[in-house]
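The instructor's notes for this session suggest beginning with a concrete chain rather than abstract definitions. Hand out the sequence below and ask the class to guess, before any prediction is shown, which regions might be ordered.
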Amino acid sequence: MTIMMPAPDQAVLGRRDAIVAALRAIVPGEGVIDKPAEMLPYESDGLMAYRQPPMVVVLPDTTEQVSQVLKYCFEQGIKVVPRGSGTSLSGGSLPLADGVLLGLGKFKRIRDIDFDNRVVVTEPGVTNLAISQAVAHAGFYYAPDPSSQIACSIGGNIAENSGGVHCLKYGMTTNNVLGCELVLITGEVIRIGGKSPETSGYDLMGIITGSEGLLGVVTEVTVRILQKPETARALMVGFAQVEAAGECVARIIGAGIIPGGMEMMDKPAIHAAEAFVHAGYPLDVEALLIIELDGPGIEVDELIKRVEAIAQGCGSTTCQISNSETERNLFWAGRKAAFPAVGRISPDYLCMDGTIPRGALPQALARIRDLSEKYGLGVANVFHAGDGNLHPLILYDANKPGEMDRAEAFGADILRCCVELGGVLTGEHGVGVEKRDLMPEMFSEIDLNQQQRLKCAFDAQGLLNPGKVFPTLHRCAELGRVHVHGGKLAFPDLPRF
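After discussion, reveal the predicted structure:
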């Protein structure tokens, strides 16, 4: 592991047997896993370059059990790492050697489908795609659709503020979640928001969404569902130059056209996806745009003509328009499978996640190309082009000495480039451990301290998911919030990294 994490608390590790016994009393049966071999599936998340077995895994299946586990850990000074399906690509659910890994995989029930209010109330372990499948019979769906939607959990989507192909028009997770049930580290259960689209007071859902498990554990979610559009058709447009495709994206948005989704792939990604899915992608182009237009049929027909004209003006070399739902889904199948497809052509890859202004896309692509030559590593580019969210896939072989280090340095330079171009470090994968030490590239010390004060308001002892997001771990007392319990200041020897 090339990253530093908080030093394990040897006193906590010395009490491991007692901790396991206490957790078994709260979550009986098969709810606690403590054997090393059985904990191996939990040693990493989707960022498999970093691995760390947890001290113990606990798998509650009720809010009351979550509350009791957190209350026990709070009283005993034990760190807790919440985990959904483990598909995070930033190390957000990387375990701690002296921490309890709190898995929400058993929370997989949909509690209420309310078509009148157009909401679904679900537990956090339900997969993203399962929500759309549960309401499809009535012509509804849940809009945010990460590529991992068949596996990623809605609770994890909240933790990372996940996006997806259709977030350009319909918003990220934060725009589609209305409320949640949240368990604080003290064990207190609170409710935030609900079925109403408007709530009084502060926007606490805006704080919880994207908080990466640092503030509390979500045990229930209320999401907005939408009616399926009357018509949805996709265009598959090829370009001889990647920069021309980037210019086309900017012109479409500049013309006031907001597609349901607009994605880009470069040549290595196109070839990998086509070999994997056989979607009919053109193989003689340098870049491919997939543009979906939806709405009333007459509107979609008009928008297709306008988009075709814009693409031709940017020098497009091919254009294919879907004529059926099967064909539209096939266009998207390759894009949705781009990540596993690239896994077939490289032993390992790092999936980066940064966001830039759309107009800066040509500069970003040129910089990535230069960096690829500098580090001697290949890269396949897959973009949420419409909102400037880049996903360069850096190809390397972890078995070759030095290649992983070069891949990490390559990725860090891509993210620095995003910030330099006026963008941000992450679009939807979160900060986790992957981007933690790059936070000062975007935020000043004052900014970071202010963010940590918010963390302290929810978790004064710093027990929830420590070692993530913040490059320097402060005591809350240092940030102006002193928390005294039983006449003693919590964690006087809190480690720094």
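Then share the key points. The chain has 16 helices and 21 strands. The chain has a mean pLDDT of 93.
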